[in-house]
Design brief:
Two copies of one chain form a homodimer. By secondary structure, the first copy, chain A, is of the alpha+beta class. Chain A has 17 helices and 16 strands. In chain A, helix 14 links the parallel strand 12 and strand 13.
């Protein structure tokens, strides 16, 4: 037979079982945390009609899209989870209750130039709250709590949720008479972290911002201190722009409710340089950075927008949302050695190795363990003992259960704890309880160490 | 602004939140049950190189494939989860431990003619055990236990796991001197359920099977009674074909281990008419039917095969696997009214409605409930009381928590059980424990009622 060389496309992540187990744990943690905040899971097709998906049109993204025809249909693979959400809400407007809170963890596709750490197929994990006409600032105030709990549940400790408000920036620019340049200026100050103060100022001048105003902008974004300090300093700007004043009130609300939401101050920061590249944000904007890995950039970003589905409906649908680029985050965590090897990644908690011809007792024990919630594998291949133990080692199973004629005669099983090497002969029911308790203990750990 | 009419492609399932919640519950049940049997989760790309995906070539499937080019790459969307598994095992052969047990729940794509209940994008939920060179019959014997536990965990009661063995059929045909016609004959008797005895016999004659042998075949597949009766009746055929004798031994092993695996006899049946359409099955084959819905056909099928990855590697990789067509199953369950409305499908367990301007107490209560594992939504929109309650009704939330000045003064919250209408004022900590206990109780139910 002629053979084809098997390969996985470049830019597509495909993990070995132990890594996949860690990825699954991350996804399960996200699902659980998002649910805790009342977000409903949503699943939309990966393929959409191009005309629908590209309603907004243009832009960098369009070139990257996987677009093709099938029969008479012009189809595209989704490149984010926001456009499908907009479509979904527009179609189902009459059947949804607003505010509509949904999470979606799904694959999206972008035909970017393949390079290390860049993926063409990758998971995004998004949450959004969509209002009907209006959406209270409390929804924006709650987002840091969701980020905090998600990251903490994953095991991350050293992270900072950085928050700004586009109205504060827009209002400030308006008070300088720079409203027409606001978008350019924001893109420039968004780069401050990367390019530094001098270059940032030079870029502003290059954009036609007068020197005095560029200095004002640089002073503004240099406001430092705690969040309280910054809010205090911002008071000086009040009264020059209604937009600014509203933005400051919103920013203050977000900061004020943090303690009630259980977010520690050290994980939060008001950062006046954050503008987010996207032009459609209109209120609070969020970025989240790993304190010891600033080079990674933001790993969870988003913000408030005014009009989710304007390409599909005349209904005004404001919302607030955040997104985690899960595949890239996983890649980075692995590369940084931040994935814990404490949590169990074996496909099973227990491996039963029968030492008799008849497997009935081994099968009964497997059934008993499973009924006790212990993930159990039965090793039934006809191999030498050494090969069986080498299999146990290779899959990294925490417990091996031996069942031979002696054990059957005495009504016991022999359980080996593969970590300590300790072997105990005990009643199957006793073994089940002991293994379950030990597994539960080991499973309390987080998937990320930080 | 010019608006595009939003739509979801025909043949693509997109569910409303309450239905999606049920679908998620089904998927979570599958993940848990498969894990319990030591299957590791696997995730492979949806896009593969066409040359790799279509290595086997030809067939009905190829016409249905979503195939396109991107840049210089000839790409295809996966049409099942078996070919990607074969690719994965061939690529990672050296790093996997065999037997390799994996489950995968993922979307696959087939551009079939769109019609009601047929999907172009649909979930398959597969498990497979892959051996290296050899694979013991115990792996085949364990499959009915996995099907039984999966279906039971979903809430299905009236189902039958029907099992046969291809060696029994092949050996029997060989003993009749019909080896060269075995494939045609098997396809014909596979249709017995649909076309009936007379038509089946006529088809056999049409295929050139002599009348006496056709009668022998019809007698063979008419063997009836319990599984034990059938095994007994099959003994009469022993000694004419080595393949048959081995197949009978395997079939007996599968039946014999059922009690130890915890599978009740009423959910199991040896069915000599099952051949499965696919030619590559070589041992035990499985179908699972809902007893009261025979018209649906098999909802979980599979079997033993000898060579998973022959198109990619000269390594012999025998395996056994089963597959559930999840999207279609969900569609059918919904249509038959078999999805339970007892389980909670609301996006949250509790909705907090603050009755004060300042939301601090409400937020603190939300944080407390969430810390107790209660999925909680905070209603912060500025609406009339009636609109707030109508929101609670629309999302179907089990508990509403009111926090007004009176409650804050007394250090209590007012909790309304939306099912009973009962209202209780109690300490937030007490409310948290009571709501959690009630929610846990309601969540013990299964997603399917049967």
């Amino acid at each position: 037979m002629e053979r084809i060389k098997p390969r996985t496309l470049s830019g597509f992540m495909e993990l070995l079982p132990d890594k996949q187990a860690q990825m699954e744990r991350i996804m399960e943690t996200l699902r659980k945390t998002y649910s805790l905040y009342g977000f409903a899971p949503l699943d939309t097709p990966i393929i959409e009609a191009s005309e629908v998906l590209l309603a907004k049109g243009g832009g960098e993204t369009e070139k990257q899209i996987y677009r093709f025809t099938k029969g008479e249909n012009d189809l595209s693979l989704r490149f984010d989870l926001t456009v499908p959400l907009a479509k979904y809400v527009a179609i189902n407007y009459g059947q949804l209750a607003f505010p509509f809170r949904r999470y979606q963890i799904g694959k999206v596709y972008r035909g970017e130039r393949a390079q290390r750490g860049r993926f063409r197929e990758f998971y995004q994990a998004d949450i959004d709250v969509i209002g009907d006409g209006e959406l209270d600032i409390m929804n924006e105030a709650e987002i840091p709590a969701i980020i905090y709990r998600t990251f903490t549940a994953l095991g991350l400790k050293k992270f900072k949720i950085r928050v700004n408000n586009r109205k504060v920036l827009n209002g400030f620019f308006a008070s300088l008479g720079l409203s027409d340049k606001a978008s350019d200026v924001m893109h420039t100050i968004d780069k401050l972290d990367k390019i530094g103060v001098e270059k940032c100022r030079a870029l502003l001048l290059g954009e036609g911002v007068p020197e005095s105003k560029a200095d004002e902008i640089m002073r503004f974004i240099a406001i430092s201190g705690t969040s309280a300090d910054k809010l205090e300093a911002l008071k000086k700007y009040v009264g020059k722009s209604e937009i600014f004043d509203l933005g400051l009130k919103e920013l203050k609300a977000v900061a004020d409710y943090l303690p009630a939401f259980g977010v520690p101050e050290e994980n939060f920061e008001i950062d006046l340089t954050i503008a987010r590249g996207l032009d459609y944000y209109t209120g609070t904007v969020y970025e989240t950075t790993l304190t010891e890995h600033p080079e990674i950039g933001s790993v969870c970003s988003g913000g408030r927008y005014d009009n989710l589905a304007e390409y599909y409906t005349d209904k005004k649908l404001p919302g607030v949302g955040i997104s985690i680029g899960l595949t890239r985050l996983f890649f980075v965590l692995e590369e940084q050695g931040m994935l814990s090897d404490e949590v169990i990644t074996a496909p099973a908690d227990a491996l039963i190795i029968p030492m008799t011809e008849d497997f009935s007792k081994a099968v009964e024990t497997a059934t008993l363990l499973r009924e006790n919630g212990i993930s159990t594998m039965l090793y039934s291949e006809n191999k030498k003992f050494k090969a069986k133990m080498s299999y146990a080692d290779k899959i990294g199973v925490p417990f091996v259960v031996f069942i031979g004629d002696d054990e059957i005669g005495q009504g016991v099983v022999k359980v080996k704890d593969m970590r300590s090497g300790e072997q105990v002969s005990e009643k199957p029911e006793t073994a089940a309880l002991r293994i379950k308790a030990e597994i539960d203990k080991r499973n309390t750990g987080c998937v990320i160490k930080d």
